[in-house]
Structures are given as structure tokens and as C-alpha cells.
Specification:
Chain lengths: 427, 128
Amino acid sequence: MIIEFSKAILLFTAVLVTAYLVRHYIFTLAVLRKIKKPHSATCVAESKYEPTVSILIPAHNEENVIGRLLQRICELTYPSDKLQIIVVDDASSDHTGQIAEEYSKRYERITVLHRDKEDGGKGKPAALNFGLKHAKGEIVLCFDADYYPQRDIVEKLVKVFADPVVGAVQGRPVVLNEAQSVVTRLVTLERISGYRIDQEARDVLGLIPQFGGTVGGFRRRVMEELGGFDESILAEDTDLTFQIYLAGFKVRYASDAECYEEAVADWKAYWRQRHRWAQGHMQVCFKNALRVLKSKKLNLKEKLDGLLILHVYFLPVITLLAFFAGISLFILGASQFVSTLWLLMPLALYSFVGNFAPFFEVGIGAYLDGRTRIHWLLSLLLFVYLYNILICTKAFFDLLASKMLGKNRVYWAKTHHFGNGNCYIGN
Amino acid sequence: MKFGITQIVAALLLETIALCLIASFRFISIESTVALLIFNLLFFSLIFQLDGAFIKKLSLLTLGNIIGLAWNFFLQLFAAAGVMLFGEIFNLFYAVSQPIFNFMWIISFWSVSLSSFTPKNMREMVKA
């Protein structure tokens, strides 16, 4: 009985892992093929498209970074009469609100909304919904407080909305404090693969590029139809991606719209952030997997990609299970399955190092970014992968426990920002 | 039919790769051959598409195969020594750790090869 069960787990995992591996291999090849082709001419309609834009900045205890972002926002090249900036001071106990108010006095187009401790501090989706009520622009862009955008980022992001079928856009985050620690360097590698290859390939192949909740935006009308962000979900951005597709709209990825972010700098902060992402992603999967499968607005490849995105954070948990299944088979003497384990382990490792991208995808992404020495850190992603197994397993059991206990709300663990990237900005 | 020096060198390098694969299968284990095949597939399908001289890529691929073969040979010696010292239980450790050890040489060599083809000019950290 145990042997049969273990065999089934190994086989299931091998098939699943191979599917993800092939997917990422196709992504890498698609991006390599794209850069070999000459650039297509920019659409004239896109370049002249200048809608009114509201920028939402939710901020909870961000005094170290909020001034840097607001200064930059005031330097944006987008016509100022078409720009509205809303800072949501989400029950901050530090000087975030005061700093934002100072900028508001200097620049008329900045509005600061304060939430008190009774209503606020319940997480980013709630803060964004609050800000959305005051947004007047056709397009709403979101920036986290630790981000630092290019001056022409608004133009780059909004141009895709010239196409009426586009419901949301995602730009590219680039790690600002890369040199700070090993963790920031490894996060940089994850970000490179996630955006330089993954998101770009999904955009090129007509799959599902993800809205990442920051350095991106959406059509306000679409958002109002959808009823705003789901405040009970920790990965409100991924949830919005699927809501947009289920409503018949698309998400586009604007690779040239770069924005610089402060990455988590130690393993503890990495754990907190990724635990939240994993838990949120799993929530989104429970909420949307069946709807994606049944939807008539998604084509077959979008459904397939959607299901793979939704289940990605379960894979480390399944891999851990398969690892124990392999060991039990070895101990019980079913030696032929140890060779299956042998094949499974490297496949799993190749597939899920770092932020669920195989090493070759990360490497090619770094190459396309013109990076040289960062490739040498690729082997270290093995440890990030092992760490992610623990994170995702804990997130899975935490979510299971909260469901069994009937708790619908999960705790929003905020990532603290220290302004560590400030020294890299030549302002 | 005339062959240039490049073609002759390329043929020799390809022959070396084939010999590495045969040697790994004949003298080491099927697992080591699979590891070499994975390395060759990833190198050939991805790195060969990048800018750079063909012969340089083929030389690096051959060097990778030789390193992989040597790595697996020493790994097998290590396993044999482990079984002699610690008994059969070492086989369990070996079964689990072998793919991870193989993973290390594949990634390390693949990455170093990749960096040798990357343009030297690093991008700026922050674009205005």
C-alpha cells in the first residue's frame, strides 16, 4: 500500500515538474527568438495616447522611502494636468503622513489621504480600495513606497491601453540595492528571470502576463466593474490578473517601463515576504482554478498557462512529498524507483531554483541584461530553492489551518523598507 | 573535398563529446550519461544561439563534457569509499545527494560559459 502510494506520488510529481520545466524552456527560447527579430514599428495610435492618470501610493510606515518616491513622482514627464497623485497614509505610526503632507503643500496635484488605526493598517488591498474611491483618472497606476520609477514611466505604461481589450499593464521592477547582501543579489536573479524572461515570454506568446501590484496599473472602469481588490486575499495582484482575464480583458507587459525597488536584504525578511506571496497565491488558486477551467473567455493556452501559474506555489510542497516518497521506497526495498527519484530530483531542482525559474532561464535573462559576474551566483539558487520548500510548506499548512478553523482573513505581514537603495540614486 | 582547420577541430571536439558520453555509460553509470545529456541539451539549445564564435562554444561544450565525466568518476569513487566506510546506509545518502552534486557542476560550468559570452559593458544601475 505504502509502496503503491509512494510510486503514484513520484510519478505525479515527475509529470508535473516536467510540464513546468518544458514551459520555462519554451519561455527562454521564445525570448531568445524575439531578440533576434528586428523590432516592430511602434503603433502611432499607441504613441499619441495620453489618457488622464491617477497614481496610487499606499504607504504604511514608509518614512525611510516615501520622500524619495514623491520627489521622483514630481519629476515625471507626463503632462501634469493629466496626472493625479494619491498617497494613502495607511495608519502609519511614523512620519510617513507628515512627509507626504509636506510634498502635498508644495505640489497641488498630490493628495494625501489618512486612514486612522481603526480603519487602516489592514493590508495593501484595503488601502488601494480606499484610494481608488478618490481616483479620477481613466488609468490608475500603483507604486509601492520603496519604488523609484523612470521619469517617463507613465508614458511607457499607459501606451498599451490604446488597445481597448487591455485591462491592466505591468512594468519591470529592477533591484536597486543589489550590492547590499547575498540575499539582495539572489533576489536580483529571481527578478531578472521573472520579468526579463517569464513575463516577456508570456506577453510574446499571448499567455497570461501577471499584474504584480506595483509598477503597473489598470483601467479604472474595469476595476470598478470588478468591484475593486479582494481584501481577504494576500496576493491581490494575482487575483486581479485572473479577474481581468475572466472578465474578457488582457494584461500586457511593458518591459521598457523600469522601476527600481528595494529588495529584502536578509533571510528573515525574505521568509516573511515569500510566505505572504505563497499564501496569497494559494488563496488565489482556491478561488480561481475552477473558474479558469470553465471560463469561455480564455482560450486553451491561456487556460493551461493560468492553471500552471495558479498551482506554482504548491509545487515545492509536492516536491517535498515526493522526496520522502522516494526515500521510503528506497528503505522498503523498491530499488527500481530510486532511479526515478534520481531523475525527479534534478528535474525539480532545475525547475524550481529561486523564484520558480530554472537556472538556464535565470542565466539567459542575466545575459540579455548584459550582466557578467552575476551568473556565478546561479548555483547558490539551490539554497533559495530549499528555503522556498520550507516557506511554501509552512504557508500551505498555515492556510489549511486557517481554513479549518474558519478564519477567512489572513495576516498581512508587511515588508519593512529602510531606504537602502538611496545611495545608488544620483539625485 | 577540402576541410579547413576549423572543421577539423570541430570534428575532433564532437568526437571527444561522443567519447565522453560512451565512457560515462560504459564505465560509470546511466545516471552520469543522463546528466551529461542534460548539460549538452541546455548548452546546445541555448548558448549556441547567443553571439560568439562557434568554435569557442564547441570548445566550452567539450570541456564541460570532460569535466562532467571526471566529476562523475570521482563521485563514483566517493560512493564506493563511502559504502566501505559506512556500510549500505551510505547508498541512501548517495542516491539522494548524487543529483544535487551533478546539479552543481552543470550549473557552475554552464554559468561560467554563459558569462564568457556576455558583452562586457554592464548596464547602468539607474537610468534617468
